């Protein structure tokens, strides 16, 4: 049984302009210890999915239907107090903006110790010990003295480390990281990602990493789900996604990243922008921006089809009419892997 | 691209220092602090080119961009702009080799003269949400510079607004809409249209795409490139994302703590030789390729505070290639660890701030006098990734003395022992720009004549040295 299983999750927000379906019939699973990436542009429903897992959707939002199974137990059927036992304990979250995630009027140490006392029933002294140990583990120098520092005395990277320490404090089964490095500099980002990878390997924690940065996904994740307009459009192991993408949106995303060493003059773009979720296009929601869209795409809504090669065909799936043979002209993209592009300072790499 | 070989905009030792505003008593006691945001920057921007400026947050990129246009007043130094002389007479004309252009010192201009020059020099802001007035329609936002500079009115003004909206890829019929009705990418296009309204020569783009999604980012980058070609614009492109800067720039300046560490053409920056800081930055870009296994160089510590920047080369506190003193024969990682130890002793008041006590040291935490010399030695070497014995005997005996001092007399005695003996040339000597090619300058002692032999191989770093681990 998978550790976390999300089935047919639908989340809507009732706004004055209309009903926004932020997450639309989404299903995925995360295995124990797996690193699962969720990629997409802003407004794709990545963060709403994450908040649903913790039942943190607030009015006017509502989880309409579906189930979220953690070890077979449905979080959506639990009482508030049962959910509170799960939050921060078995499912923990790292928020994008560490500065707002930390309470400015409590010391860093106290905020972490609070969770430990609450969930693990440690006494004052033991919780403090454990907190110092955690701060040390996430690479905060002089953890003993920094315990009583306030958040504003930490730099951005250190705040994010403290938030990671807090998330790992109760040894969670699933760690949801919502854009954990977006607010950080590239040098700090590299260190934080490395830390996250080491610690989650050490504790065998499953990670759901939400990001828009395909470079971060490539570095950390085992499996990836690409989201568009509240739906998953492609799910694949990370290597297949990068070397053999099946959905035109994935291809568009890949080709719009500027790559170091690529000397072509223009970046390829996806024309237009994410549709309004109040009024999602008929048929395939990507068809207004898709270069391969045909008549059929405006009418028929594609379903998730297994498209993988070889024995693990079920590993990769995509939501495109191409794979139900409903397209007349097919998808006109092909993926070329340019070996030269991988050559980058400082030198020798790649196979 | 224009064939002009004379720069259109250049600076001479441009400097911007902020003074922290303390309270009344602080002022009375003279406890003012100076933040050295930008220090002695000399740059040149040629017509039709894009100069990328990269660096971590807090390195002074934005301050530099704003000081260039005097959106903030520079503390020192000058900014020059070569204006096409048929526009308007200049109060201090000076002959220029270009003939049709004349040199103007922006830093000495009156505000009304400066305002006239804003038709040539424009700025695109980072945040497309806060840089547009929410109470004005898009037409009025773009029309405002036309009104201020008296470029067009009535029917002409409307035509010009529609033309500009069309140029940046927006629907001209949306001119009556308000900014909140547009997405982030579209708002950035409005910001660009506003900058283009006065038909400028130079646009300073301050992180124009960092708030945007990748697919929209690509659209805006393409638009900026198209506009450059169409109107022969020169850009100064400030960003923290190296892959974006690489894509759009002709030349790149790498900034660290208010100074340029390296300046060169894009190819030169991205190929050897590198400034050690550039090297670390380049290695840290996450590559969108799951099979890519590059060596990432992790810089230790934080960017030092610009209030009290380090002496000598500002990067020496974090540099993985910092030069060892000539009198010792030390491995590079050992030396890096020793120097880090020394720098941290300087900051520390107590032993516990230097080393991490483990579970088994519980009794020591309560009573520091119970910490034995051997245990402290072990803890220090552990913390700083130093081997049980340094490869150089002289250096080892100093370290050993220093740890004894730390044990017996505290951090200040230890500091005194370390301070005089372990001194890197990087701490005492200001690096000068070394010219690798006419367009490529690196400010690093390793690239000068005196120390070039000392340049160690970065790849020697072992895994066991925590400080600066190069990961396989």
TrEMBL record, chain A:
Pfam families named among the record's database cross-references: ABC_tran, oligo_HPY
Q: What is this protein called?
A: Peptide ABC transporter ATPase
- Which is an annotated GO molecular function term of this record? ATP binding
InterPro entries hit by this protein: AAA+_ATPase (IPR003593), ABC_Ni/Peptide_Import (IPR050388), ABC_transporter-like_ATP-bd (IPR003439), ABC_transporter-like_CS (IPR017871), Oligopep_ABC_C (IPR013563), P-loop_NTPase (IPR027417)
Superkingdom to which the source organism belongs: Archaea
SMART domains, per this entry? AAA
Compartments it resides in: Cell membrane
Q: Which GO terms describe its biological process?
A: peptide transport
UniProt keywords (A-Z) are:
ATP-binding, Cell membrane, Membrane, Nucleotide-binding, Transport
A GO cellular component term found in this entry reads: plasma membrane
Membrane topology, as annotated, equals: Peripheral membrane protein
Main subcellular location: membrane
Species source reads Natrialba chahannaoensis JCM 10990
Q: Where is the ABC transporter domain?
A: 4-254
From TrEMBL, chain B:
Q: A single Gene Ontology molecular function, please?
A: ATP hydrolysis activity
**Which residues lie within the region annotated Disordered?**
80-109
Query: Which Gene3D superfamilies does the record match to this protein?
Result: P-loop containing nucleotide triphosphate hydrolases
Q: Which GO terms describe its biological process?
A: peptide transport; transmembrane transport
InterPro entries, per database record: AAA+_ATPase (IPR003593), ABC_transp_ATP-bind (IPR050319), ABC_transporter-like_ATP-bd (IPR003439), ABC_transporter-like_CS (IPR017871), Oligopep_ABC_C (IPR013563), P-loop_NTPase (IPR027417)
Q: Which domain of life is it from?
A: Archaea
Key words, A-Z: ATP-binding, Nucleotide-binding, Transport
The ABC transporter domain is annotated at 9-282
Q: Which SUPFAM superfamilies match?
A: P-loop containing nucleoside triphosphate hydrolases
Q: Which family does it belong to?
A: Belongs to the ABC transporter superfamily.
Name of the protein: Peptide ABC transporter ATPase
Q: Which organism is it from?
A: Natrialba chahannaoensis JCM 10990
